[in-house]
Amino acid sequence: MTAPIRVDDVVLARAPAKLNLHLGVGPLRKDKFHELLTVFCALSISDEVVASESEGLSLEVTGEGVKDVPRDKRNLAWQAAALLAKQAGIDPDVHLEIRKSIPVAAGLAGGSADAAATLIACDALWQTGADRDDLVGLGAQLGSDVVFSLTGGLSLGTGRGERLSPVLASGKWNWVLAIAKSGLSTATVYAELDRIRDGQDDVELQTPTDLMNALRSRDLDLLAESLSNDMEPAAISLMPSLRQTKRAGLDEGARAALLCGSGPTYAFLVQNEEDAVDVAARVAGAGVCRTVRTATGPVTGARIIG
Length: 306
Ligand SMILES: C[C@@](CO)(OP(=O)(O)O)[C@H](O)COP(=O)(O)OP(=O)(O)OC[C@H]1O[C@@H](n2ccc(N)nc2=O)[C@H](O)[C@@H]1O
Ligand SMILES: Nc1ncnc2c1ncn2[C@@H]1O[C@H](COP(=O)(O)OP(=O)(O)O)[C@@H](O)[C@H]1O
Description:
The strands form 2 sheets. Strands 1, 2, 3, 4, 5, 6, 8 and 12 form an 8-stranded mixed beta sheet that branches. Strands 9-10-7-11 form a 4-stranded antiparallel beta sheet, sandwiched between helices. Strand 5 and strand 6 (about 165) form a beta hairpin. It has helices at about 75-90, 110-125, 130-140, 145-150, 185-195, 210-215, 220-225, 230-240, 240-250, 275-285; strands spanning about 10-30, 35-50, 55-65, 95-100, 155-160, 165, 170-180, 230, 255-260, 265-270, 290-295, 305. It is α+β, with helices and mostly antiparallel strands and about 300 residues long. The chain binds 4-diphosphocytidyl-2-C-methyl-D-erythritol 2-phosphate and adenosine-5'-diphosphate. Adenosine-5'-diphosphate (ADP) binds next to helix 1 and helix 2. 4-diphosphocytidyl-2-C-methyl-D-erythritol 2-phosphate (SUD) binds next to strand 1, strand 2 and helix 5.
């Protein structure tokens, strides 16, 4: 996290979308969350949050395809501001403008990015004196993915996804994102996975050694073989058209197709930008396509940019 800068009572923060390069889903825990073993990776698309001094808490959302994003306390960014203010013992006096670029309900952690950006923007605006551990603790209360949205880069996630350890690797990979026209609810996809597993409680989580080696050695072939997501059968069961999307990208030369989190976005790994253009053209019928890169630098989580 960068040191907070205060500019004319307005703070601008940015936080990235994520991919789960590996998503191992273990058994359902007593707290109704699943035990995970996942490798998170920040993507080069991000949302921005502008926090300005105001009386009371208010929120606006701008960008494409944002009509389904709540503008009230159901919004994770709203919850982030309210929680930080409560923790600091102050009133949540802020107007939040969320500038969305991350597709909504797409498995890319857009809401978590907004919550993370809001935490650091409001912390700077209100000068709460919270340290990084405080913000991480608040992030974990808001959602399982928010801690990664604060952290960025490349991390191994355990617990319900909130316990992170850095993966020491760097490199850039090209992906084409095939974004479906409608979203999938994370809770519904987890429930569908439980239904498919039908009470099987011996699911073992294993560290994805091949994936780690691929990332460290920047080996595209090994990376293509070692991407995996346990949620894929559940997402396809709920949205069977995903099968065609996956086929289309692979037929056009994508090296691998990875379902993003709980879906329904597919991320196609491609060798270079030329292949990205071909794959994007072929899967365009399935929804909007974007070409993005994974950014596996040291810190690309939520940060103040103005
Ligand atoms: C699947 C993943 C993979 O990174 O991402 P998305 O597809 O949502 O982006 C995450 O586990 C989503 O994390 P997040 O979106 O923060 O979910 P939360 O708000 O914490 O939880 C929403 C619901 O998902 C289910 N849930 C979430 C996390 C987890 N480890 N086990 C679960 O079973 C629970 O039903 C929970 O009530
Ligand atoms: N700031 C936000 N941006 C997007 N969606 C939000 C936000 N706050 C709450 N939501 C709700 O969370 C749901 C999941 O959105 P999102 O975080 O984009 O997807 P995912 O959990 O698949 O990564 C949305 O359908 C929306 O109702």
